[in-house]
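Troubleshooting log. The previous structure file for this entry was overwritten by mistake, so regenerating from the original sequence record. Sequence copied from the archived sheet and checked twice against the printout by T.R.
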Amino acid sequence: MDKASYLTRSTLHRRIAGKTLAWISLSRPPFHTVGILPFCLGTYLAWKTEDIFKNSVFFIGVLAVFFILLSTYQSGEYFDHREDALSKAKFKSRFAGGSGIMQTGILPRRIPLLTSIVSIFLAAALGLVLQFGCGTGPYTLLLGCLGGLSGFFYSTKPVRLVERGYGEFFIAFCFGWLPIATAFYLQTGFIHPLIHWISIPIALTIFNVILLNEFHDYAADHAVGKKNLLVRLGQGKGLVLFLAVSVTAWIMTFISIHAGVPPKMLHVYLPVFFFSLLIIFLLRKGWHRKPETLEILCGMNIVVNLGTTAAFIYAWT
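Regenerated output below.
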């Protein structure tokens, strides 16, 4: 091989590698944890309370959740392009304004939309396998559609739940009750009443993750007329709502112990609780007003959500 051919092939390989890495970044792998971990919790509860664990059902289910999340994030990258560009121009947050990949021009504009559509069909195919191949029960596809369609249409036009003022509540449902209940149902064929109590604090904390992240994008969303919940409320009322949701999450977590959750969950939850208190204190100090300190709060807030889920998992260890 001559030097010119070698350089040409080397350049081609670098371009392919660059586009592949860009597509992976576009998919936002770390943020899949907020959907997959609750699914693991539901599966774990089925094992610990009913002594049931079906390997194939679990792995197919996790893959379906992955594709639903992939579809959700990629559609957001496509349909939120304008406001994400404005947000990233102001401050490159890791938690808001999308991945920032589409603004670089590395990938064609159509890629996230195509990925989103393909992913939702793959998730649907896996749902068919679970219900009719694995015999997971008649509500399998219904539960899957609740999550898949809510995620796909969160950003996708013309539905675009994110602009309706209640899209955040769909996120709370789809990242709270739904993955836990669905995972348990796929394993056992029914939904344990305790799941309702467990899912409420997790749903409330992911609601707050979305709400606080929207502070980063507030100016950009307002500029393009994206009327999500925070834009409709304004930042002052948004902070009050964040505090109210946090307090409700604390109360419901402690109530879940009286509903039947093993008290040992407090070994993990108490540090999470004080971490959540710290966020409230720092918000009162005005940390949300500067993008650098708001970035820290958003990261801490995700820890609260994941830590709450981890506390319920630990309860049955």
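The mean pLDDT is 93. Archived copy saved in two places this time.
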